[in-house]
Predict the structure.
Amino acid sequence: MAGEEPGQRNALTELVGSAVGRGKRWSLRDFAGRAVDPVTGWSPSKSLLGKIVSGESYKIEPRLVSALSVGLGLPRQVVAAAAHWQAIGYEQQELDAPVATMLVRYLSSPQASTPLAQAVADRWDAEERGLG
């Protein structure tokens, strides 16, 4: 995959789906109760969360990003980076930014690992050790 542009990825869906849904850390109902935008008080419905974890189409908006970040207990920047990756994609040089690095680390966790995420994380590890 060397030299291949990362492009788009359903990163927000993967991020939420790694922790929410049947057999995961939180059920849709539990997560809907904890995912609340601190500015507006808005919370995604169980129906919207179901669309997110199943990969259906949904609108990404600031209050959703804020609510998901609270619910997941992740920095808003990481959830926003996932939303960006899903909505418009990233070019390789953008993935070298610190927030994107954190996102790939979260997506590279054992429950959410994919070959692309692992390859990017491995490359960054090698570069940090001066091997790349």
In short: The CA atoms of residues 18 and 111 lie 6 Å apart. The longest helix spans residues 115-128. The helical segments are 11-17, 28-34, 46-54, 62-72, 76-87, 92-95, 98-107, 115-128. The chain is about 55% helix and 0% strand.
